[in-house]
Amino acid sequence: MSKGESGDSGMSIQTLENQVIIRNEKFIEKGKQLKPQLHETIVKPTSIVEIKADTEVIHGWRSEVAAPASTLANYKYGKNDSFILDFGDHQVGYLTINLRPAGSPPDAPLKLKLTIGEMPVEMAEPFENYNGWLSSSWLQEETIFVDVLPAVISLPRRYSFRYVKFEVIDTSPKYQVVFESVECKAVTSANLNAVEKISHQDAELQRMDEISIKTLADCMQDVFEDGPKRDRRLWLGDLRLQALANYETFRDNELVKRCLYLFAGVPDEKGNVSANVFVAPKLIADDTYFFDYSLFFAASLHDYYFATSDLETLKELWPTAYRQVELALERLGENNILKDSDNSWSFIDWVEGLNKQAPSQGVLIYTMKQAIRLAEELNIPEKNNLEERLEEIIEATKTHLWDQEQQFFISGSDHQISWASQIWMVLAGVLTKEENSKLMKRLLKEKPTVGIATPYMYHHLIEALLVSGEKELAIAEMKSYWGGMIQDGADTFWELYDPKNKDFSPYGSHLINSYCHAWSCTPTYLIRKYNL
Amino acid sequence: MSKGESGDSGMSIQTLENQVIIRNEKFIEKGKQLKPQLHETIVKPTSIVEIKADTEVIHGWRSEVAAPASTLANYKYGKNDSFILDFGDHQVGYLTINLRPAGSPPDAPLKLKLTIGEMPVEMAEPFENYNGWLSSSWLQEETIFVDVLPAVISLPRRYSFRYVKFEVIDTSPKYQVVFESVECKAVTSANLNAVEKISHQDAELQRMDEISIKTLADCMQDVFEDGPKRDRRLWLGDLRLQALANYETFRDNELVKRCLYLFAGVPDEKGNVSANVFVAPKLIADDTYFFDYSLFFAASLHDYYFATSDLETLKELWPTAYRQVELALERLGENNILKDSDNSWSFIDWVEGLNKQAPSQGVLIYTMKQAIRLAEELNIPEKNNLEERLEEIIEATKTHLWDQEQQFFISGSDHQISWASQIWMVLAGVLTKEENSKLMKRLLKEKPTVGIATPYMYHHLIEALLVSGEKELAIAEMKSYWGGMIQDGADTFWELYDPKNKDFSPYGSHLINSYCHAWSCTPTYLIRKYNL
């Protein structure tokens, strides 16, 4: 995800002037010890391509093979020449360029511009024109001066890409350059061999499973990153979904454990865990806190424990998890309903105007149930207290947030009926399975206007359908959403996708969207967990 | 110098399709063994400056101190902020930037643009507008992405500069950056302590001497470079002048020796030494050959021997020197006058339309005399043969190139009267000292239109005046030329300077001119050698 900067679409900036972090050095050290080794693979480009304008395809740009990449060294490039390499699939890694001069000895440096992108649009539309509100520094480009040729240039930064555009800005009239080879050292901490292969009879689901796994692998670096192009960071909400997909595929449980310890290592003075952490140059808690994300620490610990039976970690991290629930409960009013405020207190989704009260109440109930299961495992008295509070909260939720007449959950003082509220109440199990099924069908039929903005929320829609027993509807929704991305050319699943508005970007430009994004990787979890 | 690329002003491109190099591995190895250690000095900027438009100063831009550089760390810089540092004097070296974030943890990379320049104009006029015919890759700039902050960034390329402009292209709305420190690791192979200090009673000559020495030091790297900004290369014509200045100052004779071996290591199949060599990634002879430059191998060996008495080197390199003279003599017609052709066969100077015949004849005679002196030292029979040929050539020169009526030397089929022809004939000593004195005075009085373009040719003008006994005139010319550069703000002497047209650049833009250029460093030689 990316919520660090201000903008529209329900996103907003959080900057805390007086953030106090209580560092738990034992946890930080434990997280550090679990830092994974990255697996490296050398990947060569497959083709030299041209990007053609085409109104029929997403963003209006289509890639077309011009020549096999193996012919690259046959060409000489001089001032203002350019070419685009296609690596055939999404890559996360480091570029190495092997260059030699052709003609007279190089009597001036080579000035070379690289544009590195996940999608054809990034090759076609100049970054100079980008005017969105996320930092332009995320756009992947480099201008390189090469003083001595021949040269092997290993670029120090990691890129997330499929395409690389090379523009020779200048050489001199006396020489040109030949690109002997270009390669990518792809990196991931995921062990690709650990994944059990499936042969799904439905080719579309099979493909969706594969792309999910590729997406997850490319986001698995020394932490679970949200997106390797942007923001390359560990977010709690993304972690929870990545971990679920991981348990069904790579089973790299140590990486989940590491991430849990990193979050638990830098709570604020109340014990609140931040929505995301930075791991370089050292572990730093961001100054962004979300009601739902903090609670997902407990959810993630729950999922981790039931995937691993690692009681030691559960015991050690339980106080952190429990603290998130305690802090969440403090937000309840006397009526046991969460106090509402401006929309940045809880994340939920990026839908413009979304009221966060009811969906957050759903998240609270959902997480409390998981916390109770953990307390049960630990056989500790907190269990009873949580159970009592849960009963009161569910009762209050039905009383105050369920609109008997409209047969929908409502949220906030305006009684907003949103998709997010229904979905989270279903996941929270406030109603019976039968009532949930009816509610979900009603939702899909009536389509309230306050809808879904992100794959993250789409995941919860699908899971809500599945826990309501609506497998067919769930598959249909998955096919229309993630299947749509595949039809639109996804090599990995995207941060953002609106089938009705394919140019959608909450940032003011689709150039800056991330096209390999962790919160979009869950189809493999849904397919495998629910035997779709 | 820079003659690698095509253009106007008498410059032209040479690209040989079938250049054959006969590598002398013994010489190459000897040159390699003499590679000097570079001395490093950490230099801090003195001021934060602003560049103001001012029609009264060269190029129309003046630097004005805004604050001491020591206050830099007091400022925070965000998107679109910029500042310019002044290092107080010309530097050749490597930049290190120490940066930290201010505000929230950096949630996007820092995108930083650096513009590095020798003159205020380089800070003020955008490089994007450069449209000259020399490669734009010489313009010193970098765009850097910093993924992790704080950071200490040591840029790998060497720059030649006094000013550095920092433009923060983007951070994110959540953070700014503070430049804790910026420093330059200045490098030179010159031993600054080896120079004998002079206290000249004429402050202008004193300053000229100092700036010459600084210019030479900044061009002394692992070879004698022509210009540390551009082209950073060993040219024979520049080497000859640098060596002369060096004998009067740093006395780093090993570096001269190294350069002589490098040239001698890569002659072509006829034995011709090239006009310049590249030393990285390995020793390579450029495919540019000039009649005069090749002969200057003999001149440079002559000067080296009489500065060092290094008979062993003289013996070893004599065959190379002699071969240049032999090849030059092959160009003589039956009348003992050099055959003329298009103007790229000999360098002499960059004056537009300059005919090279007579000045090259002068260079031939000048060098033959030096070769005879060397043969005399070696006590070898070539001496006699050279002396005989010299007599014939001088006779022919007087007969065919001296215009009795006009009292000037003429050149080419159009009987061109140029400054270069007179100057080189005086240096060659074709006439008596008295006749030379009259000729030089006539030259300064009548001012033929085919004049002087470069400090390189100005050097020869001054020396021609001095050998003619016209010391006062020589000093006056030096003051008006190099003194003019000083008045126009030179920290080091420039590649190009035309007091009557200060915007002059043969490359189509003064942005790309080199403002620290070896062939401009000779005032110290002239002052010290001739006791000015």
Report on this model:
Two copies of one chain form a homodimer. Chain A is of the alpha+beta class. Chain A folds into two domains: 40-187, Jelly Rolls (Sandwich); 190-200 and 208-529, Glycosyltransferase (Alpha/alpha barrel), CATH 1.50.10. Helices cover 37% and strands 18% of the residues of chain A. The first copy, chain A, has 14 helices and 14 strands. In chain A, the strands form three sheets. In chain A, strands 1, 2, 3, 4, 5, 6, 7, 8 and 9 form a nine-stranded antiparallel β-sheet that branches. A three-stranded antiparallel β-sheet of chain A has the order 10-11-12. A two-stranded antiparallel sheet of chain A has the order 13-14. In chain A, a hairpin with a 4-residue loop joins strand 13 and strand 14 (408-409). In chain A, helix 7 (311-329) runs antiparallel to helix 8. The longest helix of chain A is centred in the last third of the chain and has 22 residues, at 357-378. Mean pLDDT of chain A is 96; it is low at 2-10.
Count interface residues per chain for the largest interface.
A-B, 47 and 48 residues
Report the total helices of chain A.
14
Radius of gyration of chain A: 25 Å
Model regions low in confidence, pLDDT < 50 over at least 5 residues of chain A: 2-10
- The CATH architecture of the largest domain in chain A would be Alpha/alpha barrel
Instruction: Please write the string of helix (H) and strand (E) elements of chain A.
Output: HEEEEEHEEEEHEHHEEHHHHEEHHHHH
Largest sheet of chain A: 9 strands, antiparallel
- Taken as a percent bin, the fraction of beta residues of chain A is 15-25%
Instruction: Report how far the terminal alpha carbons of chain A are from each other.
Output: 27 Å
CATH topology of the largest domain in chain A: Glycosyltransferase
The percentage helix of chain A is: 25-40%
What is the average of the pLDDT values of chain A? 96
Which structural class matches the secondary elements of chain A? alpha+beta
Total of domains of chain A? 2
